[in-house]
Each structure stands twice: as C-alpha cells, then as structure tokens.
Design goal:
By secondary structure, the protein is of the alpha/beta class. It folds into 2 domains: 41 residues, no CATH class; 259 residues, Alpha-Beta Barrel (TIM Barrel), CATH 3.20.20.70. Helices cover 25% and strands 18% of the residues. The protein starts with 18 loop residues before the first strand and ends with a helix. 34% of the residues are buried. The protein binds iron/sulfur cluster. The site of iron/sulfur cluster has 15 residues, from loops.
Length: 343
C-alpha cells in the first residue's frame, strides 16, 4: 500500500509529489506544494500504524517585537536554537516522517537569517514550512523571495500590529496566508462585521482560536458558545466555499452544532503533533505543563513513542481534554487544573 497507492487516485492526481504518512489504520497522502491531503482508508490500510507525528510546532526564538498581555510563551525561556541546530533538527524530523513544521516564537521573522533558513530547509527536506508571525517585519521582497517554498503564513491579529496593512501586503504579493484570530467574549459583539471586513480585505483562511489561560474575563461563559456557534454556522452557509473557517482543536465539543470536516474525539496533542520550545523542551502542545528537555531528534522520537497514547490534559483553563474545558459556569477556571499540574 505504501508503494502502490497511486492506483487508488484519479489520473489527474497521480503525478503530484505525494509523501505518504501512515496513520493507525489509514494512509495520508500529502503534497507540500499544493497543501493537498488525501486520506485512504480500507482493508488495504488496516495494518498500518502511525510512526511519526504529522506536525512539529517549533518556537524558533523567544524574542518578540511586541508584548501582548495574553501571550502564552514563557518569558524566562532562552532562545537556544541556532541556524545550524534548527536546520539539522528539522531535516532529521523530515527523515523520521514528519510532514509539516509550524514555526512560531516569539517572532520567527527575528530568527537570524530567517529567509535563507526557509530556502535551505525547503531544498534539503520534504517538509511543508509554515510560520506564524505578527507581520511587522514582513516585506514584499521577503515574500517574493520565499514564494513557492512555504506552505502557509499565519498572521496573528492583534490590536497593536497594524494587521490591515500587513493583509494588504500579503494579498498584493499573492502570498498563501491565513489569519489567527483569538475569540474572547469582547470579540463577540463585533465579530461578524470584523469577519466581513477581513473578507473584503482578501482574507480567505480564518483560524478562530479559543483562549487558554487563567484570566476569567477572556474565557467564554455558557451563553457565549451558542452565540459563537451561530456566527460560525451563518458565515459557513453564506461563504459558500469562498473562504475557509477553521476552529482550533481546543474548542473540543463545546460547539456541537458547528459542521466539521472531520469528526474528532480528541485534540491529538502529543500524537498528531508535538510542541518544541525555544529552549529545547518537548511538550504535547504549546499550552501543556509537561515539558521534557531533549538534545536530539532521537530523544523526541522516544518521547513521542512513550507518550503518544496517554492523551494527557494540559493544566490550563480551556483545555478540551478537561471536563467542560475546566471552566466554571461564569467563565472562571476550576480547581481541577491545580491538581493536574502537580501530577
Ligand atoms: S492538550 Fe488541551 S490545551 Fe493542548 S491542544 Fe489539546 S485541548 Fe488544547
């Protein structure tokens, strides 16, 4: 199956540069240049087992040119990656079977020789290269230079990062991009007008993020979920395929009425993806309290093999692996996570 999968594809898709990525009982085909995924599942795939996470989320630096109050990075963490060590690590991840890297930080545009790094990683690995940025350091020259070498640029929407100007730049440059938008109760009263404004600016990919943290004012209360779900349904129906709406995995089952492309019962942290910090620690996800130092990709591989089946919740309000995301009726964070953090 791993070798003769092309016979299952329509003829127009057989020529793409597919990479195979076994799952437990299925096979993913992925073409990094188009971002196209195909999942094959049948009798022929029942024996397959996942042998690597699909994605590594890597904080390349802890340095940032903004200081957002809700930022979850550990301000005490060092920036231990060098150009050479990061390149070697990512190349080894590609050989292991990882399909994508999603770089963040800190601000990845501040990593030394970032443009050259993207070129070199693209040329020397099979990875799809994605990165999240506040956009302040993006230029048209940079975007032209990396054209065709990256999968997706994720632009974070903040009050302080002039994102409308950056969106105009990304659209003008024909960049492949989407926006990361943190949805808090304060966003709800104007969420539709902001969404339509972004759409009119040329945004076609919206990732709607839930808040994880200890500030009750930023968490949804019960009534907010219904309001938000109704908004997503309304937009989904009226967009008619013009743009994609994505929900982060941490919403869990709090939005049951919203149509999903894939049914998922777990967020897959620690299994389909792992988080790698700027000071070289492994976590199941970026919000997790488990953090294990490592030296080499082999250490990461061993960690993944040992922990991937545990589905351990993160000790943070908003984690979908905790009952009701560990939130009380008024949006406060329950004591459960205090106990969990000590485990
Ligand atoms: S473990 Fe919890 S916080 Fe982490 S990705 Fe999963 S649902 Fe989100």
């Amino acid at each position: 199956m791993l070798n003769d999968y092309r016979k299952y594809l329509p003829s127009e898709l057989r020529g793409l540069n597919w990479q195979t990525h076994p799952l437990d009982g299925a096979l993913i085909l992925f073409d990094r240049n188009t971002g196209l995924n195909i999942k094959l599942k049948g009798e022929e795939t029942t024996h397959l087992e996942r042998n690597a996470p699909r994605t590594l989320l890597i904080a390349v630096t802890n340095i940032c040119n903004l200081q957002c109050p809700f930022c979850y990075r550990d301000l005490e963490s060092a920036s231990d990656w060098t150009y050479a060590s990061l390149l070697e690590f990512c190349q080894a991840a590609s050989e292991w079977g990882v399909l994508e890297v999603a770089f963040g930080g800190g601000e990845p545009m501040l990593f030394p020789n970032w443009e050259r790094f993207i070129h070199e990683l693209y040329e020397t690995s099979n990875l799809a290269i994605n990165f999240t940025t506040n956009g302040l350091k993006l230029t048209s020259n940079f975007l032209r230079s990396i054209e065709g070498k990256y999968g997706n640029i994720r632009l974070s929407l903040y009050e302080t990062n002039h994102y409308e100007t950056t969106i105009a730049l990304l659209v003008e440059s024909g960049a492949r991009f989407g926006v990361n938008w943190l949805i808090t109760p304060d966003e709800l009263p104007h969420i539709e007008s902001k969404f339509l404004k972004l759409l009119s600016l040329g945004v076609r990919d919206f990732l709607l993020l839930s808040y994880k943290g200890s500030d009750p004012a930023l968490h949804f209360q019960r009534q907010h979920y219904a309001e938000f779900a109704a908004f997503v349904q309304r937009m989904f129906r009226s967009l008619n395929g013009v743009a994609q709406i994505k929900l982060d995995v941490c919403w869990g089952d709090m939005l049951p009425e919203v149509p999903r492309l894939f049914e998922a019962t777990d967020c897959s942290a620690g299994d389909a993806f792992l988080s790698i910090t700027s000071d070289k620690r492994i976590k199941p996800c970026s919000f997790h309290h488990w953090a294990v130092p490592f030296e080499t990709l082999d250490d990461v591989r061993r960690y993944w093999q040992q922990k991937r089946g545990l589905h351990q919740a993160a000790a943070i309000g908003g984690c979908a692996r905790l009952p009701d995301r560990a939130l009380t009726l008024n949006g406060g964070v329950s004591d459960e996570i205090i106990h969990l953090a000590s485990v």
